[in-house]
Amino acid sequence: MTTLYVIINWLLLFSYWSLISGITLRIMMKRRSVPSSMAWLLIIYILPLLGVITYILFGEPNLGKRRIKRSKALWPSTVRWIKNLKRYQQIFSDKNSEVARALFQLCEHRQGIRGLKGNQVKLLSKSEDVLHTLIQDIGLAKNNIEMVFYIWQAGGLVDRIIESLVEAAWRGVYCRLMLDSVGSIDFFRSSHPTLMRAAGINVVEVLHVSFLRSFLRRMDLRQHRKMVLIDNYIAYTGSMNMVDPRFFKKNSGVGQWIDIMVRMEGPVATAMGVIFSCDWEIETGERILPPVNINDIVSFEKKYSHIIQVIASGPGFPEGVIHQALLTSIYAARKKLVMTTPYLVPSDDLLHAICIAAYRGVKVHIILPRNNDSILVDWASRAFFSELLKAGVLIHQFKGGLLHTKSILVDDQLSLLGTVNLDMRSLWLNFEITLVIDDDDFGRNLAKVQEEYIANSHLIEAKSWSNRPYWQRILERFFYFFSPFL
């Protein structure tokens, strides 16, 4: 009996260390930042069993076998679609401004497509305007409506959006909705999905969360895009979820959420349609590549001059392209760089690029919400302030609500807007989308919005920040430890 216990103990010990060694080797073999690898190793060796389970659940961007299989299967048809689109050379831009040239070259090499010209673009900086304009466009839709949102919450003008979609479905418009399971959890618990499906709207709950699925794919991998496509020639994207800020998270203590969206007409809608079709096929298995409406495209190409590139990220899309695009944009700055983000937990490369821009003499502004809905991110972001302030970066804390806008403006010419936060989750994990717009008129419009944010912000002084209480510094460093996972 004693011998049996000894054998069992040795087997358990061997299994334990084999598991620890296997996870350690897996961490070391993955190409990731050193701080992230070290953080994972510390967690695993300080809290071995809990650390191993946590790594299995959250350590790698595992999409799940079924979705990975679909992702691989869709690319040949997507490549053929892009090749077909390239036949219409008149819709592609062959020149860019000096500040945008490197970024557009990067996007062409990483995504296989050049910037699209001939787009009409309108910046919508007020949520009420976004919802009213969207209601009008839905009312005029003739063929199809596709939407992707992280959060969909009924109430206020969103109820009118739902009514407009139901009416569109009844008159024969094909409507598809992809909503994230976590972000839209309250919506899926309500009666609205049943109502919409009864009208013929195809509502899909994306990336379901459950205990059993947690061991098959990473649970914090989320569908974070915000996109609307109408009749393959109208498109919206930006930072705004499908919520009415007057009714959203009223008890959170951070005020109303402040967002921007961009409404577009032209070839860019066709490109965004490909992104939606990829997401749709990965989730449902159904192939719905959009048609190339070249007649509509050519008519817009003759009327408008906005040049746009669309960057999509997430499993199955070019790895690290968002991160590379941000770095390229920052290094292209010569005079002024303005960044707005609700969550600032940058990679070391991004942090250094921002600081180097300031050291080069670029006037760098970062605008953040003064009150944040994430305590972890709020404290972790403060750990970067000292280094940024030392470099001469101007950090503004917005006082008019939770500033949720994600935007970058380089030299008043190159604009980046979309769903990407300056944190690890957006940069390396989630399904995200960013617009790159090379146009000085649009840049001036974005600059006006950013100036309004700055006017309603508190500027952090380097001297007063250096005199903050010591206990705050301890909390900042503690939460900074978790920054690779935020």
Topology overview:
Blueprint: H1 2-29, H2 34-46, H3 48-58, H4 65-85, H5 98-111, E1 116-124, H6 127-140, E2 144-149, H7 157-170, E3 174-180, H8 185-188, H9 192-198, E4 202-206, E5 227-230, E6 234-238, E7 257-258, E8 261-265, H10 267-284, H11 294-303, E9 306-313, H12 321-332, E10 336-340, H13 348-359, E11 363-369, H14 375-382, H15 385-391, E12 394-398, E13 402-403, E14 407-410, E15 414-418, H16 424-428, E16 432-438, H17 440-455, E17 457-459, H18 462-466, H19 470-480
Parallel strand pairs: 2-3, 3-4, 7-13, 10-11, 11-12
Antiparallel strand pairs: 1-8, 1-9, 2-5, 5-6, 6-8, 9-16, 10-14, 12-17, 14-15, 15-16
Helix pairs in contact: 1-2, 2-3, 4-10, 5-12, 6-7, 12-13, 14-19
Q: Just give the CATH class of the largest domain.
A: Alpha Beta
**Number of domains as seen in the coordinates:** 3
The CATH topology of the largest domain is what? Answer: Endonuclease, Chain A
**How far apart, in Å, are the first and last alpha carbons?**
49 Å
Number of strands: 17
Task: Indicate the mean pLDDT.
Answer: 87
Oligomer: single chain
Q: What would you say this structure looks like, in words?
A:
Helix content is 47%, strand content 18%. Helix 1 runs antiparallel to helix 2 (34-46), helix 6 (127-140) runs parallel beside helix 7 and helix 14 crosses helix 19. The N and C termini lie far apart (49 Å). The chain has 19 helices and 17 strands. Strands 4-3-2-5-6-8-1-9-16-15-14-10-11-12-17 form a 15-stranded mixed sheet, sandwiched between helices. A two-stranded parallel ribbon has the order 7-13. It has helices at 2-29, 34-46, 48-58, 65-85, 98-111, 127-140, 157-170, 185-188, 192-198, 267-284, 294-303, 321-332, 348-359, 375-382, 385-391, 424-428, 440-455, 462-466, 470-480, and strands at 116-124, 144-149, 174-180, 202-206, 227-230, 234-238, 257-258, 261-265, 306-313, 336-340, 363-369, 394-398, 402-403, 407-410, 414-418, 432-438, 457-459. It has 3 domains: 2-58; 65-313, Endonuclease Chain A (Endonuclease, Chain A); 321-485, Endonuclease Chain A (Endonuclease, Chain A). It has 486 residues and is α/β, with parallel strands linked by helices.
